[in-house]
């Protein structure tokens, strides 16, 4: 009998525990269901305020703030027609300029030097031109005559020595080197005499027409360079 009572006791205890657990689970489920219902009701009751406006046609401006480097669509390199050291700068970096504006002022020291050099070159060429146009002076004619005379004396002397050395070489008295040396001296003296004679003729006849025109062209070019300096 005691065994049966104990068995019934455990069965009853097990049923009681199951009942309590079931009751607790049902309560928890009911509580969660009630919470969900309350949350749903709260969401339905929340009123979100809104503002309505009349739709109108217009422009929408959007601005973007960024950091970068501004580059021009077109870059123009400005140079000076003449070289020189900048004495004064009339504009600032990035300043807008117009055609005809003075950008820089060059120092005039180098320009003055260029003008003086151009003037000196013009004076020298002009003097040469005047000399050619006026013809040779008497002193120049005498100098040319003296040069021809001296060159003739040197040539005759060299010719006489050459003929003498030639005879000795034929007779095998002197070496070939001595003969060649005398021959070269004669040829040089003869060439110098011809050059002196041609120079004398140029002095007497005056400058050729093409020489005069060449110097005239040099005078014009130098004057143009002086005007540009």
TrEMBL record:
TM stretches of this protein: 7-26
Annotated compartments: Cell envelope
Coiled-coil ranges from the UniProt annotation: 141-199
Keywords from the named record: Coiled coil, Membrane, Transmembrane, Transmembrane helix
A Gene Ontology term for the protein's cellular component: cell envelope
InterPro entries the UniProt entry points to: HH_YbhG-like (IPR059052), UPF0194_transport (IPR050465)
SUPFAM superfamilies from the UniProt entry: HlyD-like secretion proteins
PANTHER family linked to this entry: BLL5650 PROTEIN (PTHR32347:SF23), EFFLUX SYSTEM COMPONENT YKNX-RELATED (PTHR32347)
The protein's name: YbhG-like alpha-helical hairpin domain-containing protein
UniProt source species: marine sediment metagenome
Taxonomic placement: unclassified sequences, metagenomes, ecological metagenomes
